[in-house]
Specification:
112 residues; 6 strands; six-stranded antiparallel barrel; mainly beta
Length: 112
């Protein structure tokens, strides 16, 4: 489907956050820049959030392999997540589910 401007409508109205964050990996805190998005999935009942962390040599040196369980802290909160799939530019993907580490306004219908 398309909107009134002729552009395709997005499947999800993604909420997001772009800015500074901290990745907690073990006992180490690494300052990073993130670009995050997310959406509520009514089928499983979870908010799924995901994004990329700007290339960061300090973070890359602390991750063994291509994945790590971490905590992501932003100015609005912190949540457990998973680092995975660094791209060719060295940016790790991060994802998590449930309450995201950024503000979200959900338009959840009231029960009838």
């Amino acid at each position: 489907m398309s909107d009134e401007t002729g552009h395709p409508e997005e499947e999800h109205d993604d909420a997001g956050y772009v800015g500074p964050a901290t990745v907690l990996i073990g006992d180490e805190a690494v300052p990073v820049q993130v670009d995050l998005r997310g959406y509520f999935q009514p089928i499983d009942g979870f908010f799924h959030w995901y994004g990329r962390i700007a290339a960061n040599p300090e973070l890359a040196s602390r991750v063994t392999g291509n994945r790590a369980d971490v905590v992501l802290r932003t100015p609005r909160g912190e949540r457990p997540g998973e680092l995975s799939d660094p791209d060719v530019w060295g940016r790790f993907r991060i994802s998590g589910e449930s309450t995201p580490p950024f503000d979200v306004e959900l338009d959840v219908p009231a029960e009838a």
